[in-house]
Specification:
By secondary structure, this protein is an alpha/beta fold. It has helices spanning 30-36, 43-52, 72-77, 95-108, 119-128, 153-164, 181-184, 218-230, 243-251, 276-283, 314-320, 331-335, 349-355; strands at residues 4-10, 61-66, 82-86, 112-117, 135-139, 170-179, 191-201, 236-239, 262-265, 268-271, 291-295, 303-305, 325-328, 342-344, 357-364, 367-374.
């Protein structure tokens, strides 16, 4: 078997602001602010999930990577033969570190560039590689709109496994997407295309590009909102992020955090843009069954946990209980998944398995469908 040269870049601060309601790590000082609020970095742990799939092949591959937490630490901890081609000088890494690292790896003649991060990281990689070089993303950020990412970290590992074992894997061009910041400042979440990169395409493992923009069928969304509102009394309702859940808030004439988590009780807003710790504290006075969670799925991907709502941690989901989770979506949004299951990627494999199975999805007023939920593969 040919020795496989895998390039690895990890953005160690990707998604660090998710659990503390900072919606990512982009921007000067955001990572430091997130850490001051108690956030912990998870991108190396997610990269480990991908690399663990490749452990049976570690004698047939070398990982070319970046010093310290940008790849070296994780690769060596798993026992891979590792060669560092770029040294990082700063304690908190920057976009420039990612770009310099990618250039060094390309110059080394790697077979595939595997990188862990979010949409900002994908943009950094796209600045350096041309549209002919194969890359693959391990999802580790808050914002994952781009089609260059596998659906889960383990799925990324399985795609690389196919390549290492010389199985036929098609290459396809995938869009690099990120939020249009000018629209975001106006409260509109719409993905903007920043380029494309070539990815090894195995449809079971590579995500579709996230659907950008708001749902257009307002009548259906009004019916869904009416169903949720009819169920509200003196319980605490935690409202997750997304344009579909935002419509519920709009129908209640309440301010909404489009990329955050809000809380309402008796149809009144009691807290906005909550961190994980905020939610946990807010839940404490309520008895079992008195807290409901309203969430939707990411269009084109199907994630209900693990993308853009890291504030909803495993301990919060467990405390709320599976039966008190209200998933809302239009049937058009579900049909767009083409029978692929919804994905619970909470970061806790036991909880992911507990959430697996068929769950009701509210698709209209007094209208529900049963839809499969799967744990990351």
């Amino acid at each position: 078997m040919k020795q496989f040269k895998l390039g690895l870049v990890i953005n160690p601060i990707a998604g660090i602001g998710g659990s503390v309601a900072l919606k990512g790590s982009d921007g000067v000082g955001v990572a430091e602010q997130a850490m001051a609020l108690g956030a912990t970095a998870k991108s190396n742990a997610r990269a480990s999930l991908a690399l663990e799939i490749l452990l049976p092949y570690k004698d047939n591959m070398t990982i070319y990577t970046v010093s310290s937490d940008m790849g070296e630490s994780t690769a060596k901890a798993l026992g891979f033969t590792t060669q560092v081609v770029h040294q990082v000088e700063n304690e908190v890494t920057t976009e420039r570190d990612t770009e310099l690292a990618v250039k060094a790896l390309i110059d080394e003649g790697i077979d595939l560039l595997l990188f862990a991060g979010g949409d900002g990281t994908a943009r950094n990689v796209c600045h350096i590689v041309d549209d002919k070089f194969p890359v693959l993303g391990i999802p580790a950020g808050c914002k994952i709109h781009s089609g260059v990412y596998a659906i889960t970290p383990k799925a990324a590992g399985r795609v690389v496994e196919l390549m290492i074992t010389n199985q036929l894997v098609s290459l396809t061009d995938a869009d690099v997407m990120d939020i249009d910041e000018s629209l975001f400042r106006e409260g509109i979440v719409k993905a903007k295309r920043f380029g494309e990169m070539r990815v090894p395409s195995e449809l079971r493992y590579i995500q579709a590009v996230k659907s950008g923009g708001k749902e257009s069928d307002e009548l259906v969304l009004q019916d869904i909102a009416a169903d949720v509102i009819a169920k509200m009394d003196d319980e605490l309702f935690i409202i997750g992020s997304g344009s579909t859940t935002a419509f519920v808030m709009e129908e209640l004439a309440l301010e909404n955090t489009l990329l955050g988590v809000d809380a309402i009780c008796q149809q009144a807003l009691i807290a906005s843009d909550l961190t994980e710790a905020d939610i946990w504290q807010l839940m404490q006075p309520y008895k079992l069954g008195q807290v409901k969670l309203v969430i939707t799925l990411i269009g084109g991907q199907g994630h209900i946990f693990g993308r853009g709502n890291q504030q909803l941690s495993p301990r919060i989901i467990r405390a709320i209980k599976k039966e008190n989770i209200m998933i809302i979506a239009t049937k058009a949004k579900l049909n767009a998944l083409q029978a692929r299951p919804l994905i619970a990627d909470t970061g806790d494999s036991e909880l992911d398995m507990e959430l697996s199975g068929y769950l009701p999805v509210i698709t209209g007023y007094n209208d529900q469908v049963l839809y499969p939920v799967a744990s990351p593969q």
